[in-house]
C-alpha cells in the first residue's frame, strides 16, 4: 500500500464567511509525483487499486472531536500512446478448440468474426463482429467478458490473478445463422484504465467471447488487449 | 239593458277606385345614371393611408379618394396575384436513383397532406391503451397516507417484486398485467420525482426484461405497447433532466458545442450506466428510449446510435421479439429524429433476412406448446410490420416502393409482407400496379398467410384510387376468378363486400349484375345469408351510392332477387328505407321507366306492409314521408291519364297511411290544375272529362283519411281546384261534405281546446273566402251553402265554443258585405259568381241583409249575456272585433250603424281594459267626417 501525502494549510485570510452557517475555503495544489515516479491513473481493482483521495481535517478546540471528510477524485493521463487499429480475425470450429476432454462429443458448429482492434482507446467503445455460420445445437446466448489481469510481484515471486470486470450480452436466444452480429462494449470508468506495467505490478486487460449452447456447453475465445487513453 | 234590434246595412265599395287610390306613386327616371336601387360603385383601387393625427383629415381623404376616377399606382403587391415563384415540388425532376439516395438520409421539406397515421392512432395501440386505462388501479392504501409514504410502500413492494415478482409477472393474465404495468408507470414517475433515479432505472430495466418473455404470444403486441409506453416515459424523464441543465438550447436542434459541462457530465454518467447493463434486451431497449441524450455529447451522435442499435437487433434470436424491437426503433426514430430515415430500410431488410427464423425448431417448438398455428402466429407480426413499412413508405419515392416490394417478394415470397406493403403504400401506387400484384398473388406458393386477406387489402386500395383504364376489366376478371373459388362464406363476404364497391364505381350494370348473382349463389347454400345481413346491407348501400340512375339499378335482373335474401322483416325494411332515401335524394329527373317504377313500388309496398297497429309513431312518419317522396318523383310527363291511373294504383297499395293518401290527393289536384293551365281554361271534351275524373278521385279518397282536420282542409282545396277546372257541381259537393264534416269534429279528442278552436276558426274563415266565388245552385235557394254552414255552426254546441261561434258570425258579416257588391273583389276565371247570376237583384240584396240581421242578433245576444270572469276577456275581444267589422264593412252614414258601433265599443271597454281607448277616440275626432260623429256618439254614451 503506497500512500502519498500532501498537506495544505488554510491561512486565516483565506477564510471568508458567506453566512453564519456556511464558510467556503477555496484551495488548489499541483499534483506532482515524488521523485522519478509517474502518476498512475485512477483504477479500482480487486488486488490493485490506485486512488487519489482528498482528506479534509478540521481541528476544533479541546472538548470537540476533530472532523474529517474524504473525497476521491479521478486522475486521467491525457498524453499517452496513440491506439492503432489492427483488425484481429478469429474463427472457432470443433477443430480449433483446445482444452477439451474428448473431441468426439463436440457439437458441430462454425463461428467466425473479427475485432476492430486489440489496441484500443479506453474512451472509445470496443467493437467488432461475430457471425455464427452454422451450429447444430441451438444457442442460448453470446457474451462478452471483460477481464482484468493483475500481477503483483516482489523479489521472491509474483502472483497473477484474473477476474471479471463486466459481462455484456451481445446475443440472446438462437441467433440467425450467417448474420453479422455486432460486438460493442463501452469500457467502464473506474474499473478499467490504460494498460499499466510498472516495476512491481502490472494491470492488464483481456476480453473473452463466450458462446453458450442450450445444453449448457460453452465455447470461449480469449483476446488480450492493450488499452490507452488516446 | 234592453237588447236593441239592429238591421244590418252593408257598405258599398268600389274596389277599382280603392285599388287605384292605394297604389304607390311612381316617378319616372330622369337620367339613366342615377337609380336609388343601383349598387354603389367604388372606382378607386389605391390603399387608403389612414392618418391618426387628425380624424377630420381621414374623413376628407376618404371622401376625396372616392371621387377619383383614375386608379392610382398600387402601393403594395397583392400576394395572391404575385405568384411568380415556381412550385418547389414540380421543379425537382431528379432521377429515381438519386432520389432514393437522398431519401436514405433526409426526408423532404414538404410536410403538407400528411395521411401518415402516427403511433398513437394505430389501431392496436389505441385498443391496448384504452383497455389498460379502463381498468381501475386498485386502491390499496388509505387515503390519509401522504405521497411519500405511499411511494415507500410501493417501492417496498417493488423490492419484493425484484426477487421473484417480475418472474411472477410473466404468468399474470392480461388484466392483472395491465394493472401492474400502469402501476409501475406511476411508480416510475414518482420515484424519479423523489430523486430516486437508480430505482427508476431499475424499474425500466425490469420492465424491458418482460419483453423478452414470449410465454403468451398472442398477448405480446399488447405487452409491447404497454411496456414501451413506460420506456418512453423513462426516456423523456432523462431527456428533460438534461435539458433542464442546459439553458437556452433549442429542443429540435441540439448543438453539442453549446452544452454546459455539468450537463455533459450527467449525460455521460447516464450513458455509461446504461451501457453497463448486462443483458442485451433491456440494454438496447433503454438505449433506444434514451436515444436522444447522446446528441448532447456529439452532433449527429443519435443518428449513429440508431443505426448501431439497428444492427445490434440481429443479436436477438426470437424473431417476434426482434421484430418488435425494430418497431420500437422506428418509433423512437419517428419521435426524436423525424426527418432521419437511414435506419428504416436496414430494419426492414434485416427482418426479411431473419424471416427464415420462424421455421427453426426452437420457434416451432414454442408454437407447438402454445398450440398456435402458423397463420395466427404470423398475424402477430402484422402491426409491427405495418408500422415499419408505413414509416418507410411515407412520402417515399416510387423507386423506393418498387425496391421494397421486390425485396419483400424475392427473398421469401411471403404474402404477409406483401399484405403489409399494400396496406402501407399509398393508394395511387398500388392501384397502378394492381394487375401485377394480382398475378403475384395467384402465383404465390405461400400457404401460411390466408390469401383472401391479401385480396381484401388490395381491394381497399383499388377502391380509393383508380387503376389505369386498360387494366380495370382484366383486374376484375382475375380477382373474381379467385373469389369465386372461396368456399368459406365469411372470407368470401369480406372480400366481396369490398370488391363490389370497385365494380360499382368503375363498371356498368352488367358487371354489377354478375357480381350480385355470384353473391347470391355463394350465400344460398345452407341459408348462409342469414349470418351476413350487415354485409349485404352495405353491398346494397354501395351500389346505391355509386349508381345515380335508378332505372339502371332495377334493370339489373338480379337486384330484386338479391333483396329477397333479406328474409327477416326488420332487415328488409331497413334496406327498403335505404333504397327509398337514396332514390329521393339522388334522382334528379322525374322517373317514368316502367321497370324501375315496378321495382320502386315493390320497395314501397314492402315498407307499407311493415306498418301495423303496433308500429311507433316515428316509424309511421318516416315510412309515410319516404313513400310520399318516392311517389312524387314518379312522373309520366305529358301523359296525364297514365299518371292518374298510377295514382289510383298507389291509393290501392298505400291505403294504410294517412299522409300518403293526403299526398296523393294533393298530387291529383295538382294534375288537374296543370291540365287547366295548359288548355288555358278552354277545356275540350277530353280534358273536361279528365278533370272531372280527378275531382272524383279526390272526392272518393278524402273520406278514407283518419284525421278530420286533414279531411277538412283537403275538401277545401279540392273544392277550389274543382272550381278552377269549371266543375261546379263537384265543387258544390265538396263544400257540402266539408260543412257536414264539422259535426264529426266532435269525435276528435280535445276538440274544445284553444288550439282546435283556433284551427276551426281559421278553417271557416278560409272557407268563407272561397264561398264568395261559388255560384249559387238555383234550385237550392239563395246562398244555400252559407246558410248550411250557419245552421251547422249554431247547432253544434258540442264542437264550437260560444266565443268561437261569435267570431265566426262576425266574419260572416264581412262576407255578406262582399256578397252585396256589384262587382266582387275576386272571381274564378270562366266561372260566373253570384254577382252575374243575380246582378244586384233587390230581392237578393234583401235576402243578404236579413241573414245579416239574424247573425247580428245572435252576436249581440252573446255579447250582452253575462259570463264568468275568465271568459270576460274573450267576450271583450269579440266585441272589439265587432266594432272593427262595423267600422270596415257597415254603412256608417246610417245612424243605427253608428249606434251599433258605439254599443260594441262600449261592450268591449266595459272592464276598462283597453288602454288605447282614449288615443283611438282622439284619432277618430281628428279624422273628421263620419268618424268624428261616431266618436261623439261614443262619448255621449253613459259609462257602463
TrEMBL record, chain A:
Highest taxon, organism lineage: Eukaryota
InterPro entries given in the database record: Arrestin-like_C, Vps26-related
Signal peptide: none
Family: Belongs to the VPS26 family.
Protein name: Down syndrome critical region 3
Source organism of the structure: Clavelina lepadiformis (Light-bulb sea squirt)
Automatic annotation (TrEMBL), chain B:
Subcellular localization, as worded in the UniProt entry: Endosome
Keywords: Endosome, Protein transport, Transport
Positions of the UniProt region annotated as Disordered: 51-73, 86-117
Keyword Transport: yes
Chain intervals with Acidic residues compositional bias: 107-117
InterPro entries (UniProt xref): VPS35L
Bias (Polar residues): 86-95
UniProt record similarity statement: Belongs to the VPS35L family.
Name listed for the protein in its UniProt record: VPS35 endosomal protein-sorting factor-like
Originating species: Clavelina lepadiformis (Light-bulb sea squirt)
